[in-house]
Amino acid sequence: xxxIFIVGGNGKVARYLAPRLTKQGDHPxxxxxxxxxxxxxxxxxxEPVYGDLAKLSPESLSQLMAGxxxxxxxxGAGGKGGxxxxxxxDGEGLEKSVEAAKLAGISRFIxxxxxxxxxRGRQLSDTFEYYMEVKKAxxxxxxxxxxxxxxxxxGTLTDGAATTLINTGxxxxxxxxxxxxxAATLAYILAHDQINHVILELTDGDKPIEQALAPxxx
Length: 218
Description:
This protein is an alpha/beta fold. It has a single domain (about 5-215), classed as NAD(P)-binding Rossmann-like Domain (Rossmann fold, 3-Layer(aba) Sandwich), CATH 3.40.50. It contains seven helices and eleven strands. The chain has helices at about 10-25, 40-45, 60-65, 80-105, 125-145, 180-190, 210-215; strands at about 5, 25-30, 45-50, 70-75, 110, 150-155, 155-160, 165-170, 175-180, 200-205, 205-210. The strands form two sheets. Strands 3-2-1-4-5-6-10-8-11 form a nine-stranded mixed sheet, with helices on both faces. Helix 5 links the parallel strand 5 (about 110) and strand 6.
């Protein structure tokens, strides 16, 4: 059994991920920042751990991560709070999580990032462009960290039911992907340490997850 620390444990993807991890015999540890979220996270099978990512230091965050085997970073400002909140969560939050993982002696780090073509073809705000800049900088920071990393870049997220049929690769055509399919993909990656040091674009597709990810198990 692996203990998986989820940064952004109350997020939509994380809420799908926790029960999937429990089902495969792992133990999700979900970081949350509002006390009323705790009962729901417990009901999903997660061990809730209180902490505000924007306020935690790498040292204090590493203490919360202690004893875990891998990190999933799925936190995101979601466009709320403007550029400052995006910087604090998607940018600095990722950086301090990486440093905390190092302090805690955890090498396995999975980042939920953003598809490069996200939002293209629409009128985009300056805030969105800043968000994309921060997400790319976070990818660069993780790749340079020396950790055992995987970066997953989902397409447009939907709340559709999981099909566990996906399309993934180093570069694929843009499309939609259900949050539950993202969670199922993350759970599979966490169960297969051979998948590492790779950036995977992800959409709904027609291949079972194990078949789609087979080329990346090395």
